[in-house]
Structure formats: structure tokens, C-alpha cells
Amino acid sequence: MRARKAGKFSLPAFLFPEIRAGRLFAAAVSSEQTVWIRQQLIAWLHMEMRGKGMAKEKKAKTGRHFKTPTELFFEALGNSIKEIGTTFVHGDWKSKLSYVIFGFGPLMRGQIAKGLAFLASEILFFVYMITFGGKYFSKFSTLGTIATQKIKRKTVYGDNSFLILLFGILTIVIIAAFILVWVMNIHENHVEEERLKKGKSLPTNRQFLASLLDSNFDKTLLALPCLGIFVFTVLPIIFMICVAFTNYDANHQSPTNLFTWVGLENFRNLFSFGTNGFGSTFVTVLIWTLTWAFFATFIDYFLGLAVAMLINKKGIRFKKLWRTILVLTIAVPQFVSLLYIMKMFANDGIVNAYLMKWGWISSPIPFWTNPTLAKITIIVVNIWIGIPYLMLIATGLLMNIPEDLYESARIDGANSFQMFWSITLPYMLFVTGPFLLTQFTGNLNNFNVIYLLTQGKPQSMQLTGNAGYTDLLVTWLYKMTVTDTNYKMAAVIGIMVFIVTAVVSLVVYNMLPSVRDEEGFQ
Amino acid sequence: MKEKEYASMSKKRAIGNAVSYIILILISIIWLFPFFGLVMQSFRSYATEYGGMVNYIIPKQFSLDNYRFVLSNQTNFLQWYKNTVIIASFVAVLQTLIVLCVSYALSRMRFTGRTFLMRFWLVLGMFPGFLTMICLYFLLKQFGLTQAGAVPGLILVSVASCGMGYYVCKGYFDTMPKALDEAARIDGATRAQIMVQMIIPLSKPIIIYTALVAFMAPWCDYIFASYVAFGNDKSYNVAVGMTRWVWTNDYQGYFTRFCAGGILVAIPVTILFMCLQKYYVEGVTGGAVKG
Predict the structure, then answer these.
(1) Of A240, A263, A286, which residue sits at a domain end?
(2) In a domain, A121, yes or no
(3) CB contact under 8 A, A237 and B124
(4) Do the Cβ atoms of B111 and A481 come within 8 Å?
(5) What is the pLDDT of residue A56?
(6) B17-42 confidence digits (pLDDT tens)
(7) Contacts made by residues A356-365, CB under 8 angstroms, sequence distance 24+
(8) Chain A residues close to B121, C-beta within 8 Å
(9) Do A13 and A133 fall within a single domain?
(10) Which of A16, A362, A463, B25 is within CB 3.0–4.6 Å of A467 for a Cys-Cys bond?
(11) How far is B127 from chain A (nearest CA, A)?
(12) Do A331 and B102 touch (CB under 8 A)?
């Protein structure tokens, strides 16, 4: 009666679709689609680490060096530096002049479109630096020194630290991009010279433009999305990471006040356990965040599995009806259903009202105002939200378990509990391991449920930074940004969320059976 | 002997099924109860009864007062509704287009920096989204897209970063055989032609799925929407506008009106979801099954 022995299907061909299905659902389940991404990162880190181990093994075996992704990156970097040198030494005068005037070589060789693009980017860069970027970049190290003053009832604005920080970062990135374009420009010259030396002709402008729809189609497709992600995600994230090292808060709001670099001060504050420090609050919130994620993930998982099995059971009719009833929870916008449930359990809500009417209790149960009870209620309500998703996922997966596994178990005389314990559960855990991890990290950042139900309340005098007993790190971060305008600490918490998510994922990922023991379920 | 055993087994099964049905009915009641309550309370008049919290579910008298209020000029509900529909439609269309482009490039083409790009987006995804709120607000303000211009602002922000959500769609593209592309290329088709004429017509489920998910999201968007539209009632979306009716103490008696508004929001979204549920599940599992 061992599942491992009974099954004859092999892992890669049979199981991978299911694993992927789990991941797909995870992406659909979370309000942020990015949850799935986290797991990918871990896969990469894993590859990096395993690469090191494999490197030693392979070297011992074959004598050849096995490269990790990072090593490959540095190798590529080295190659392009080498190319810059060799092109300058061996190149013709057109190429040499291209080192100063971008695109000169291509222009002289008749590559008008490419040459003009390079030249235009150089001109644009200098125009940007002189008219706009330069003045912010020069103040980047101090974030401004001239304070805003009031001279004779008139406000004379000084430096704006916010703008200096933001545009300073932008300028740094643009300088990096400029260097990249320079390298590309040299590479282009090198390639053209090589082609001409071999006696081949260069592609015409028309061919080059046409290639944007064919061999270079990727650049056309990705240009706009990359630009959007850069302006609206990359730039803000770098900005906020920098804010964690400044004193930007309610007392240092630009444009009226300056803020400046303070080094690791904010991080020290986060880990100081004195009366004013954030230490104890941070630990409280962190513990609740982890507890919540654990219960929200596993209780939902097992109950969802149970419900799916119940509906899938032979002899149960109206399967579609039961599923539809549950799926209704996914379809109705969460802010409607969750706010209604919040009111249902309120002190004057319908649940307390009926319990009092029936004489079961004399005073309302403080579902949301008692810290412990509030935590339990949140977890219970989350079951209401979580089961339908898990039911949908599990339904598909359960159907994939080969029927002959159960058949042979039945012949061996196993009862249904034994079958569940040694076939269904191991199979499900194995297949949905990565999915569970994404669920867990998703729950660590489950803003909607917490905020719509309690807004982090009940609040406490013992906690600093407006934190309440049901606050997760992300809701606390939100409150600090919006209510307290304590941007520096919000940024620090944001970095902490990043670290917690990364660490948890990394640790759990290495514990997953499907990772540790890839051949396990054969 | 055997017949007896069989009879006892079928009896056992019947009892098991009965228990299962009872559990399923209980589950259904629990899952449907909030919706039942929502509908019932939306029919309780705030004028003749009370609009706040009461200790009974079924109203003493069914009335449409709440719906009348919500649809009248007394609130901006219709404006909020319009805003949300506009945001949701634009986001659904543009996001689908961008996700298709990114997925195609990452799935079908091999270029330098491809893995780097994917890993870079991966790391970005590990930062909590709210972290960037202040900065985004400032950026939008520079373009005049906050407060009165919050609707285009919200569309811009949702669409700008959606390229990172390519995973589901790329997974689907990955399962389409590469031989299709190669055959078309031998026939002289360009990459762009392959994408438009071949891949996209084959990806109906994933397109509907992407659009559906994108369309549903703005209906729940409270956090960023409330920050961007802060103080400008006319550019709220339904979530921001109606959440006040529940949270703020000044709106004690607005609870039933919230229920009515909630029903009006939930009905079209729910119907849409239920109609496209097939594609939702198909799109989600489709990529897996086809492999």
C-alpha cells in the first residue's frame, strides 16, 4: 500500500502540467499577479546554488568548468570590454571617430537609420544633461542645501529634496543607459567592419526597418512595456529604497523642508527596543504576519481539498451546482462581499444580533475589537474566500490521479481513509508544493482581506507607528505612508517585506519534495 | 453471502452519500448566506425603516428606496460606476495587448538579455506594490493625472506595469509547437505576421482569460485609487466611493445603500464571470493540458 510503489507514471511528462496548472492558478488567485514571480526567482537562486555544487562535480569528472549564471554575466562583461579595446586598435578612422560621435561609422557606411538613431541618442543625452539632469545630479549627494524661506511674506522656494532624489536617480540611470548605447555603438561598428572585410554587403535601411517586424521583432514588442515598467515600477522602487536611507517624514516634507541622507539610522530605529523604537512593534507585526500566512495557507488548503473530494465523490449529484455556489465567491468583487461580512460580525451586526435574540449570549461577542478573537475571525473568514479557489484547483488535480492506483489499493483491502492518506495526500502535496509556496508568500502580502475586514485594528497603545494587532507588514506600510506620512519607515518596512518574502520562499523552496527529490514520485 | 455483503456495502454508501449531501447543503448555506443577507438588506428602506444595522435580516417591508437613492442625483454613484467601467474596459483591452506582445517576444524569440530581463522582473515583483505609491502619485501629478484626472491616471498606472504579468500567457504560448512557426517562416512569413495571423487566433482562451482578469481587478481597486483620487468625489471608482458608506461614522445610516450599490456592482461582474467561467478555467488549465 505505498503510493510510490503502486504508481508507474514518471515525473516529468506526467506531473509538470499539473505543477504548472497550480502556478497558473496562483497567479490568478492573487490580486497582485506578481506573486508567481517570487517563486521564479527562487528557482533561479536555486540554479545558481546548485550550479556551484555541480561546478565542482563536473570539474572533477570532465575537467571542464561549469559556469553559473553570474559567471556567465561577468564573462559577457569582460568580452564587451575587450571588444571596445580591439575595435579601437584595429578599427578604421570611421570607427575611431564613432567613439566620440555616435553613429558616425554607420552613417558613413550608408546605414542612415541606425546611424541617425545613435547620433540622436547622443544629442538627446547632452541636451538632457545640460538643461535638466545636471543640476539635479550635482545636488544628489546632499539632496539640497538651500532651505525654503519666507522673505517679507513671500515664500522663496529653495531646493526640493524630493525632486533632487527622484531626478538624480533618473539621471544616474540615464547615464548608465548612455554608456550602454556607447558600447552598442562600438559593437555595431565592429560588426559592420567585419562584414565588409569578409566582402559581404551591409543591410539596406529598408531591410533594417523591415527587420523590426521580423528578426528584431522582439525589440518592437518589448520597447513600450519596458519603458512603462521602468518609469512606473523600476524608478519608484529605486526611489523608495533610497528613501529608507534618508530622514524623509512628516517633519521633512518637500518643498517646504529639506531632507537628507542619514545612513542606516532608520534601520537602527526599526531594531531598537526602547520606548520610541519600532523594535517590539515590528516583531509583533512580523510574528502575526507569519502566523496568519501559515494558517491562511494550510487551513484553506486542507479544507479546500476536502470539499473538492466531497464534490468529486462518486454518487454525488449536481456537481456543477455545488461548484457554482462556491465559485460565486470569486465572481463577486471582494470589496462588496468582505465589507458585508465585516459588518455581519460587527458588534451591532447580524450575527451578534441573532445570538442575542435567541438568548445565547447577553452581550455582543467582540469579533473585531478583541485582538485574539479578531485574528481568529479573520482566519475563519479567509476560509470562506480561500476554499473556492482551492476547490477549483484540487478538482482538476484529483481527476488526474490514475484510477488504477485506487483500484489496486482497494484490492489490497485499504479503506477510504488509508487511500486518502497514502495516495491522495502525498500526490497532492507533491504536485501542489510550489503552489503552496506561492500561496504562502501571497498571504504574507494579503492586503485586501486584512484591510477590508479590520484595517489592522484593534489598535493598541503598546504598538508604535499606528499599528494594530491584526496589521500585516504591508498594511502597516500602507498606514505609515497614508496616515502618518512616515515615508522613511514605510520604505524600511517595504525592504523588510522584500527580505522576509525572499527568505521564506528560499527556505521553503529547498524543503519542497518536488525540488529536493525530483524522482520521488515514481 | 456475497449478496448480503453487497447489500451492506450499498447501504453504507447510501449513508455516506446522505452525510455528504448534508455537509454540502450546510456549506452552500454558509457560502450563500452573505449574499442572501446583502440582497435582503438592500431592500430595506432607509426612509421608513432604518438604513444602519438592525437585528433582523428580512426587511419588514420590501422597498426600492436604496436603489432609487443610489441611482439618483443625490450621490455620484453613477459617475463612480461610469469611471469604473471606463477604467476596467481600457485596462482590459490595453493590458491584453501588452501581455500578448511581451509573452510572444519572451516565448517565441531568443535575444540577448532575455533571461536577464525575466530575472530582473522577477526581483522587482518581490517588492510590495504600495512601496511605490508616493512616487507614482508624484509622477502622475506631474502629468496632471491625479484628483480630477484620476481615471486616465489609474489606467496609465495599471497598463504601464502590466508587462510583468506575462507568466500565464507565456506558459500558454510555450505549449504551442515551435514547428508551426518554423513552417510559416519557411513559407516566408515574418515574425509579425506569424504573431498576428497564427498565434493570436489560436490563443482565444488565454486572451479571454487575460482580459477577464484585467477587467475584474479595477472593481476591487481601493488602495491606489483612493490615494490618487483623494478628495475628488467625481473621479472615485465604486470601491472608493462606497467604502466610505460602511466605514465612516457620519454614514451610519448608509449601510443599506451600500448593499444596494454593492448589488448593482456585483450583478454585471458576476454574470460576466459566470459566462466566461469556462474560458477562465480553460485558460488557466489550457496551457497545462495542451503540453
Answers:
(1) A263
(2) yes
(3) yes
(4) no
(5) 57
(6) 888 899 999 999 999 999 999 999 88
(7) A356/B55, A357/B55
(8) 37, 229
(9) no
(10) A463
(11) 5
(12) no
Dump pLDDT digits (tens) for B223-240. 888 888 888 888 888 888
Can you tell me the distance from the alpha carbon of A32 to that of B267, in angstroms, rounded to the nearest whole number? 24
Q: Say which residue, A291 or A35, is predicted with more confidence.
A: A291
Do residues A230 and A287 share a domain? no
What is the CA A229 to chain-centroid distance, rounded?
A: 13
Give me the total of CB pairs closer than 8 Å, taking one residue from chain A and one from chain B: 292
CATH 1.10.3720.10 positions along chain B are 73-290
**Quick check: B135 and A240 CB within 8 A?**
yes
B21: closest chain A residue by CA: A316
Is residue A449 in some structural domain? yes
Question: Which of A235, A263, A291 is where one domain is finished?
Answer: A263
- Cβ A232 vs Cβ B160: under 8 Å: yes
pLDDT band (50, 70, 90) for residue B95 = very high
Note the pLDDT of residue B23: 92
Q: A-chain residues within 8 Å CB-CB of B191?
A: 213-215, 217
pLDDT at A249: 85
B289 exposure class (CB count in 10 Å sphere: 0-12, 13-18, 19+): middle
Q: Tell me the C-alpha distance between A197 and A191, whole Å.
A: 10
**Are B220 and A335 in contact (CB < 8 Å)?**
yes
A136 & A91 share domain: yes
Residues of B in contact with A481 (CB under 8 A): 130, 133-134
Give the residue on A whose Cα is nearest the Cα of B33. Answer: A341
Residue contact A333–B255, C-beta within 8 A: no
Nearest chain A CA: its distance from B63 CA (Å): 20
Give the CATH number for residue A331.
1.10.3720.10
pTM score? 0.81
Q: Do A32 and B129 touch (CB under 8 A)?
A: yes
Owning domain of residue A511: 3-51+274-516
C-beta atoms of A445 and B128 within 8 A:
yes
Instruction: Give the per-residue pLDDT at A121.
Output: 92
Residue A63 pLDDT > 70: no
Homologous superfamily of the B73-290 domain (CATH)? MetI-like (1.10.3720.10)
DSSP state string for A314-363: TT---HHHHHHHHHHHHHS-HHHHHHHHHHHTSTTSHHHHHHHHTTS-SS
Contact A445, A497 (CB under 8 A): yes
Q: What is the ipTM of this complex?
A: 0.87
Q: Is residue A41 part of a domain?
A: yes
Same domain (yes/no): A425, A448: yes
Q: A507: which residues sit within 8 A by CB, 6+ positions away? A: none
Q: Do B117 and A502 touch (CB under 8 A)?
A: no
pLDDT above 70 covers what percent of chain B? 93
Alpha carbons B121 and B127: distance in angstroms, whole number: 11
Do both A106 and A194 map to the same domain? yes
How does pLDDT run across A204-215, given as a tens digit for each residue? 778 888 888 888
A149 falls within a domain: yes
Q: In this structure, are A259 and A280 located in the same domain?
A: no
Q: Is the pLDDT of residue B7 over 80?
A: no
DSSP state of A274: S
Predicted confidence at residue B30, as pLDDT, reads 92
Q: How many domains does chain A have?
A: 2
B27 contact residues in A (CB cutoff 8 A): 307, 322, 325-326
CA distance B171 to A33: 14
